[in-house]
User: Fold this.
Amino acid sequence: MTEDFVQVSFDRIVQTRAYTAVVLREKDLRFAIFSDASVGRFLQSHLSGEERHRPLTHDLISMILQGYDIRVKQVLINDLQDTTFFARLFLEMVKDGLRHIIEIDARPSDSVILAFLHNAPVLCARHVMEKVIPFAE
Assistant:
């Protein structure tokens, strides 16, 4: 981890009918990334261990990654413009003895879910941390 990024952790989700707030934490600072309500429903079902009869989108993505032996290496939340966060998803695959890492532009909410499902670190740029609006309960 470089000094330009700090590791954040999943704190909780706040769910309404209209949106989901994925709350992340770094020490005493908590901030929310807002997404559509389906993200919250997926996270809630995963956290509660609810059995799903059919795979949802994040399940499908995870199964594809596992099928090709691709590892979620990390997520970098690298920008904040107005109230919109931006993230990069890093995937790693070893093929023919060579390690390949690809970087993908992705929605932070999707990236954080994949990191959570695959136990990968989520890092946030310091300049983004300085611009976030702290999440108040």
Notes: DSSP finds four helices and seven strands in the chain. The CA atoms of residues 80 and 128 lie 6 Å apart. The longest helix spans residues 37-48. The chain has one domain: 5-129.
